[in-house]
Amino acid sequence: MDKQIFDFEDYKEYLLFREQTWSRGMRKALAQAIGCQAAFISQVLNDRHHFSLEQAQNANSLLGHSEEESHFFLLIVQLNRAGTDSLRKYFSDQIGKIKVQRKVLKNRVGVAQTLNLEGQLTYYSAWYYGAIHMAITIPDLQTTSAIAKKLALAAPLVASVLEFLESVGLAERQGSKYVIGKTHLHIDNESKLVSSHHTHWRMQAIQSLARTSETDLHYSSAITLSQQDVELIRENLTKAIIHNKKIIRASPPERLFGFNLDFFQL
Q: How far is CA 4 from CA 95, 124, 174, 219, in A?
């Protein structure tokens, strides 16, 4: 079974597990992140030393932990550092509560079919929720680090979004990778969130103008035309959208694009 940080209570075992999925040089990267020699990392993983809480917090950023994962990592570090039975029990109880809460949430998500209003409010609050959601359909973009690099976003932010997508069933975690979940996403045209959704992606379209890419296509023009032709062009564009959506649904997920269409009266 694929593991994640919530399956561990020994942070050293967790780090050794992460090292297996790291391309190379995790110990060196950790040493640089927490400001120590690489030999110290080996001593920690060989059970001769412990991270301080400050070092653990710096490691959170390197490991791309979300807010919840960061909190859990600090808890298991403190559990391992605890010097008395009562203190170990305290941190163990805190860890146990988190695991129970996550189990309940996971069971609830399995029943959900459509993203509820609360989830929609979060999903449509920023452009990167949709971008990250679509990114995980591409095999090469199913990890926190790959998505962060592709979209030029901070790894902790990407991790938090992926955790949200997983919590509402829009994504499923398989080890260090994420794939599309079973929950459906639907927003009515009458929803107040539609305006925010369009605005976020129009802003991304504007930013794309500063980049030069042969695959991008931008067209802008002020025009005059008859009312009859207004309806004709609108109908043609609607048909084009429907036709392109059929192509998109059948197309293998290989590259991540934004798809906007602007045609409006001045």
A: 14, 27, 9, 45
CA dist 126 and 123 (Å) reads 7
**In this structure, what is the dihedral angle of CA atoms 80, 83, 86, 90, given to the nearest 10 degrees?**
-30
Report yes or no: 136 and 171 within 8 Å, Cβ to Cβ: yes
pLDDT digits (tens, 9 = 90+) for 187-230: 766 677 888 888 888 888 888 877 777 778 777 777 788 888 88
Distances 101 to 17, 96, 146, 159, 165 between C-alpha atoms, Å: 24, 9, 29, 19, 17
Burial class (CB in 10 A: 0-12, 13-18, 19+), 252: exposed
List the domains of the chain with CATH numbers: 5-111 (1.10.260)
Residue 258 has φ and ψ, to the nearest 5°, of -95, 145
> How far is 40 from 68, CA to CA, in rounded Å?
27
Give the Cα separation of 88 and 192 in Å (integer): 49
Least Cα distance to 69 among 133, 6, 145, 129 occurs for: 6
